[in-house]
Each structure stands twice: as C-alpha cells, then as structure tokens.
Design brief:
The protein is built from 32 helices and 22 strands. The chain is an alpha+beta fold.
Length: 856
C-alpha cells in the first residue's frame, strides 16, 4: 500500500467518524458562499433590470437625453431633431399613481405620442399586442389609459370600466381604453404599467411642456458623430448618453444598500471561518494519535501536511459546490425584499435574477480558501510535532502552551490598531473597493484578536470558578471547570465562534437601532409641523409629487395657520446624480425648523437660504465632492448649468448620494417645476391637530395620506424592517450555525473522555451527578461564549455604526446598542448549550466501565 493510498484512507476514515464536524464545516462554507453569491447577484440583477426597462422603452433608439426628476422642456425635442444625423426623436414622460382600492399597487404610467414615431413604437409594443377598443377616443380623451393585460386581470377591469387612482391632484378616475399584451413594455415592473397619450399624461401630472426622456434614433452608421454633437448642444441642460445611461446611475444609488448586505455577508463569512477553525482544532485534538502513528510508519512532515490540507480542501469543495446554487436560489427568494430595500431610492421591479459571475468567482475563492486558511496553522503545527509529543497530548499530558497569556498583549494591540484604522480612515481612501477592504481587514483583525484571547480567558475563568466554588455540589463545581483548564484552546475556539456570531447579530441590531433613533428625529427636526401631506416619506426623491392644487386646498381649510411646500428630486451635478431639495425656508424658519450645521455660519441660515444668498449641502455631498462653505456647486437646469454658492454643510439623512438644499421658490424658477413632494401643515394655536387633520383629509378626498410624526416613524420602521430582513436572516443563520459548534464540542469532549467518565462511575459517582457535571461544562462554554460575544459585540457594533457607516455612506448616526438583544444573548447560548449536552451526557453516563476501558 502506497503512502498516498494510506493517506487517502486516513482522510476517508476520519470524515466518516466525524460526521457532525463534516456537516458543520460544509454548512459553514456553504452559507458563506451562498451569501456572497446572493448579495452580488441581487445588486447585478437590479442594475440589469433597470437596463432592460430603458432598453425596452427606448426601443431601437441608441441615445437618450435625460434631465432628472424635473424633466426637460419639450421644445428640446425640436432642437434635437435639427441635429444632422438624427433620424427621429421621441419624447417620453414617466409618472406613477396609486390604486387605493388595491393597497400595494403603484401603477407606472408612460406618456408617449401614440400617433407618431412609428419605428420606435413597433419595437416597444407591436400593433398586434396593442388592443384598443376606440383608437380615436383614446387620443381624444384626457383620462384614457391602456393597461397591461396582466394588471387588468389582477384588478378585474374591462374595456370601458373606470379605474380609481390617486394622482397629484388627489383622487381621479381613469377610463380603461385598451390592453397591452405580450412582453416588452407590458412586462415591466411586474406588469403594473399603463400607457397614456403624451398630452393627456402631461395634463394629468401637471407636466405641461415637459418630458422626462427624449429617445434619439440616429441615422444608421452615424451614432458616433451624433452623440458628441448632442453633448455640446445640451451641455448643462441635460445628460446625453447611450441607451440605459440611467442604469449606470442606479449603481451609485445602490451603493449603500449593497454595502449593508455585503457587511452582513461579511459577518456571516467570518462566523463560518471561526466555526471552521473551531471544528478543525477540535478535530485535531481527537486525531493526534492517528497523526503520530502516520509519523511512526514513515510519513514525512510534508506528506502529513498535504494530507490534512487536502481534507480541508475537500470540505471546501463540497461546501462551495452546494453554496453557489443555494446562493442563486436565495437571490430569487429575496429579490422582492431587495426591491423594497431600494424603494426609497428608486422604484423598480427585479423581473429576473441574473447571476453575477464575478461574485461567483469571489465566492468560490472564499469557499476554497476559508477551510484551508483558518486551519493551516494548527495543521502545520500538528504535522510538524514529534510523535512523542502528540502521544502525550493524546493522553492528556499537554504542556498548555495554547493557554498562556503571552498572546493577549499582541491580541489587544491588533484590536486597537484595527479599530484605530477604521475610525480614522484617511480622506485619500475614496474607492469603494478600498474602503470595503479596510472595513473587512479591521473586523477580521478584531475577531482574530478575540480568538487569540479565547484560551487565556477560558483558563482564567476556569481557575476563578474552581477557587471560588465551595457550595454543596462540590463534585460538580470542582470537576466541571476542569474542561476550561484541560482543553482551553478548544474551549476558546468554541467560545470565539459563538462570540463572533453574536457580535454580528448585535452589530446589525445596533445599526438598525441607530437608524431608528437618528433618522426619524432628524426628519422631525427638519419638518416640525403638526402633520405632513405626502404620498410617501417626505424629502425623498422616490416619493411621487403632488400638484399645487393640493396646497391651495389645504390652505383653504379652516384652522390651518401655515403651509410649507417642499420638493425633493434627483438632479445632476456635472454628470453625478445628486438630490435637490427645494425647501420652503422662510415658512419653516418662522415655525421652528432646526437644521444641524456641521461647517459654516449657523446664524439665520434658513433666512439666508430664503433670501437666495446661497444653498446648503449635506455632509455626504461635502465629502463626496470635496466642497464646503465659500465654494460653488454647479447644477444642471433646463436653461443650462447654474452655480450656487455654498453657505453651510448640514446634517442630512435623505439619501446618501449627497443633497443640495435651496429655497423652494428658487427651485421653481430655475427648474420650472411647480410640483411639491410634501406639504407641511401647522395648526392654529386654538385648533386640535387631530380634528384639523380629519378636515384636511376630507378636503383632499382621502386620496393623499396625511401623516403625523408617528405615522412617518411607523412608515420608516416598516421600510427599514423590510430592507433589513435579508441582513436579519443572514445573521440569524450564522448565529444558529455557530451555536451548533457547542454541540460539536460537547459531543467530541464526551467521546474523548469516555474512560475518565467511566472511572467516575467506578469510584461511586452517580449517573445523575455525571450528567450534571457534563451539563455544567456545556453551560460554562455557552455562557463564556455569550459573555464574550456581548463584549465583542459592543466593540464591533460601535465600529460599524461610527466607523463603517460614515466610511461608505457619510452618515453620522447616533449610536444605540441593542441592550435587549444583548440581555437575551447569554441565556440563549446557555440554554442551547445545555440542550445540546443532554444526549451526549446521558450516553456517556451510561457507558459500561469495561467498554470505556477498551477505548484506550
């Protein structure tokens, strides 16, 4: 028999004997790989879904002209048509309406010229797919729509029926004039789409003379010459790019969301790595005799090392092979939750999951490297140790080097260096990949430092327990902590795996708690009115706008003292998407609005904005563009690029793209957009706000929500819970796997000590006492991991909230530690440990002495 055959048989024998260790290791690799694949796939699918939307809408057009949320003047269509090489230019308007009778449906309306641009329309929807009952009535009516057949079936409407919707003017009834079958436009946004003739859509949404996109079809072969001419002609007035340029902006919009899920996946991968390290160390502790015998029969150090590494690589291969398809399935299951997570940024429907092969490649590399990398140190040390020392360890005569305190000092130094690097990231680190690498390195360094401290902590706790226990249950109290003294390295590895899992859970919990504590308070400070009239969360560009008629109706309600109209829209600053907020500064300042100034003169800031002396920019904008008080920000307007002096840098949590705040009157004048995202209402001093809210709702017909601060907080909490559901599930799964490491430890520990446990029975120790000893050992390990996890979670949660979040999004959140979750962590780990020890302890306590002695 060759050495290779003997080594292979040793691997197979070991894997068969340690099924639990193999299952835990494979599951850990599988989870880490699946989460990396799912995270990358979801982000890629979102971007490609948006690309498909624009490709479908633009049809054969290869160039699009866009102007952000305010839109473009319709006269630009004629200007574009005069450019040499342009075969056709078609305007399109986008808008959305809610269907109050069916909660949860937001209908996307496309306003197009149904009688023109035949070449483009054929590619978007064929005449066979467009079924119109009375074509001339459809064009003549200002309320006729064509619904997708899918949506019509869901709503149960037929041609000629009325459809009640919520528009910028409030409640309205649309007439169903036809249906759109097939794929293409009809399949966008899950089928929740409708077509309207362009003039009718402009009138209903108060966008007269404005469009959102101009689709440009160049003459064949002249695409390369038309685009630069359009860029020069429309410089400062519109963005010009290849079809689907808006999808590239989506990647920037999704950056913070992707970072959040990436951090959750990162925590899970680190948990899995520590789980693999724990199982590897426990496994090596069980097979030291086998490794020693391999050395005795002639296996060299290199051969033993290759055999052990091959065993870990096999585990990685199996886990990776299972993790990749599971990650794709996970992305399919979570695509709706991911769509909800990005809803505050952009409304879209992920219609199909597209595998991100870059993420798959990274996941495969992680899956193969993780089991080998975390175990390489113990494997090499075991392979290089002399057979005599290995046999001594097998008989329990370890020299205890793993528990010495000399590793604590460098561990604390590594943790301090990692935390310092994360909290004091230099401004020169701007690339997303570099910042993510810094976050990953810092967290891994802290977790590695925790694992180094594990054995010393286990030994210290064991000594303190044994010395301080003088109760009635002396046998239990004396013998139970011996596990902390005999195998401190194994206990420390198990406790570290539990601690890292709990740290991940507590860090995500701290992030959610900090968001809940900070964002609603900041919103209430900026909007101090008694209630807000809005079709969504105010001051978010994704919230559908309202018309000025709603504001006039609200002002006419008896008991209303003041009304401020604010507009939030996506704009452009020299090719970069930004959020523009037209803020009614004068009214807000007169009624107690508070703006937190980070840099600049705070005195009469809102009044200076109201006098149009300049604008405020968010701290995220300042960091992203390197601009501050005294500088000038340039924004694209329908009349060209315009510069605005920056008065101050303020704290803002609307969207982390960066925000520019100017007076609402300046926004209306320069962008020609009279729509309003939200109306802030103050009641007269002698008015009951609740009664006034009811009268306002009656005046606008209940079609537009009237939100109090409590309603806005509930809406925010609901969106946050939906957005973080994937992260919650990720950390829960990693926590469950880490808790199973306790099961692995107890099973292995009781198996290896069968002879010792049987001798306890031989000297008169009862089975019940033996079971109690083993239960106490399990509870000690679980409790140690729980306490260690709470302490580690306090450190990592602070670093995530005050280090990682500002690094990737620019948001400075008020740190809130999830105390209730921390209080439950220790009892849960102790309970799981106690339950995991029931069967192994019972089996070990009932093992006959003769059989146990036979295990020598």
């Amino acid at each position: 028999m060759t050495f290779a055959t003997l080594g292979a048989l040793s691997v197979v024998r070991h894997l068969r004997r340690q099924r639990m260790r193999v299952v835990l290791s494979v599951t850990g690799v599988m989870l880490g790989v699946a989460l990396v694949v799912a995270t990358g796939t979801l982000a890629t699918s979102a971007v490609q879904s948006m690309e498909r939307v624009f490709e479908t809408l633009l049809g054969p057009a290869s160039i699009d002209v866009t102007g952000g949320d305010p839109g473009l003047p319709e006269e630009l269509v004629s200007l574009v048509e005069t450019v040499p090489g342009v075969a056709d230019a078609a305007p399109v308007l986008f808008a959305s309406v809610d269907v109050p009778d069916v909660p949860g449906i937001r209908l996307t309306v496309f306003g197009v010229d149904l009688l023109a641009h035949e070449t483009m329309r054929r590619a978007q929807f064929s005449r066979a797919a467009l079924q119109i009952v009375h074509p001339f009535d459809l064009v003549a009516s200002m309320r006729a729509v064509v619904l997708s057949r899918t949506l019509a079936s869901r709503l149960g409407v037929h041609a000629g029926d009325g459809l009640h919707v919520s528009t910028p003017d409030g409640s309205a009834t649309l007439e169903v004039g036809g249906f759109l079958d097939g794929a293409g436009v009809a399949a966008l946004f899950g089928g929740d789409v409708a077509l309207m003739d362009l003039p009718a859509a402009q009138q209903m949404f108060h966008r007269e003379g404005r469009v959102d996109v101009i689709q440009v079809l160049p003459v064949t072969g002249q695409e390369a010459t038309v685009e630069p001419v359009l860029r020069t002609l429309l410089a400062g007035r519109a963005s010009v790019g290849r079809a689907g340029v808006a999808a590239s902006h989506l990647e920037r919009l999704l950056l913070s969301t992707r970072v959040t899920f990436t951090l959750a996946a990162l925590f899970a991968c680190i948990v899995c790595a520590f789980l693999l390290r724990q199982t590897a160390m426990v496994s090596l502790a069980r097979r030291v005799e086998e490794i020693a015998l391999l050395g005795v029969v002639g296996f060299g150090r290199a051969s033993i090392t290759v055999t052990l590494i091959g065993e870990s690589l096999l585990v990685g291969l199996v886990g990776t092979a299972a993790g990749v398809p599971i990650g794709v399935v996970l992305a399919m299951l979570c695509k709706d939750a991911f769509g909800t997570a990005i809803a505050p940024l952009v409304r879209m429907h992920i219609d199909a999951v597209k595998v991100d092969w870059t993420a798959v490649g990274a996941a495969v590399a992680i899956g193969l490297a993780m089991p080998v990398g975390v175990a390489i140190g113990p494997l090499v040390r075991a392979a290089g140790a002399s057979p005599v020392r290995l046999l001594q360890r097998a008989r329990g005569m370890s020299d205890g080097r793993d528990s010495r305190l000399h590793r604590v000092v460098p561990a604390l130094g590594l943790a301090a260096a990692s935390a310092t690097a994360l909290l004091n990231c230099p401004s020169s680190v701007t690339a997303f990949s570099a910042r993510l690498a810094l976050i990953t390195t810092a967290l891994v360094g802290i977790f590695l430092a925790a694992s180094w401290c594990g054995p010393a902590v286990a030994r210290t706790v064991g000594l303190a327990w044994r010395r301080g226990n003088h109760g009635a249950a002396r046998a239990v109290g004396t013998l139970a902590p011996l596990v902390l003294l005999r195998v401190p390295a194994d206990v420390g590895a198990t406790a570290a795996a539990i601690a890292v899992a709990l740290a991940g859970v507590l860090s995500i919990g701290a992030l959610v708690s900090s968001l809940r504590a900070t964002l609603p308070q900041a919103l209430e400070a900026a909007l101090p009115g008694d209630f807000v009239v809005s079709r969504g969360l105010p001051l978010l560009p994704s919230t559908p706008p309202l018309s000025s008629r709603i504001g006039e109706a609200v002002r006419g309600v008896t008991g209303v003292m003041a009304v401020a109209g604010h507009r939030a829209a996506l704009g452009d600053s020299r090719g970069h998407p930004v959020v523009i907020i037209g803020y009614d500064a004068a009214v807000s300042a007169a009624h107690g609005a508070r703006i937190t100034v980070i840099n600049g003169d705070e005195r009469d800031l809102l009044l200076r904005v109201a006098r149009r002396e300049g604008v405020m920019v968010s701290d995220t904008f300042s960091r992203r563009f390197g601009l501050g008080p005294g500088d000038t920000v340039f924004l694209s307007t329908p009349d060209g690029e315009r510069g605005f002096p920056i008065l101050a840098v303020v704290l803002d949590y609307s969207v982390d793209l960066g925000t520019v705040v100017l007076d609402a009157s300046a926004y209306r004048e320069f962008w020609g957009d009279a729509s309003v995202t939200s109306y802030e209402v103050w009641a007269a001093p002698d008015e009951d706000p609740r009664a006034l809210r009811q009268r306002v709702s009656e005046r606008i017909g209940y079609a537009v929500p009237v939100l109090t601060s409590r309603d806005m907080r509930a809406e925010f909490d609901g969106q946050l819970d939906h957005a973080m559901s994937i992260a919650y599930a990720t950390e829960l799964a990693s926590g469950v796997i880490a808790l199973f490491s306790v099961v692995n430890f107890i099973v292995v520990a009781t198996h290896d000590r069968r002879r010792e446990i049987a001798l306890w029975g031989a000297i008169g120790t009862s089975r019940r006492t033996i079971e109690r000893i083993l239960h106490c050992e399990a509870c000690l390990v679980g409790g140690l991991g729980g306490l260690f996890g709470v302490l580690l979670g306090g450190v990592t949660s602070y670093l995530v909230v005050r280090g990682a979040v500002p690094l990737v999004s620019g948001w400075w959140l008020e740190y809130r530690f999830p105390g209730s979750a921390a209080l439950l962590a220790v009892p849960i780990t102790i309970a799981v440990a106690a339950v995991s020890a029931v069967l192994p302890a019972r089996r070990a306590a009932r093992l006959p002495l003769v059989e146990a002695l036979g295990t020598l």
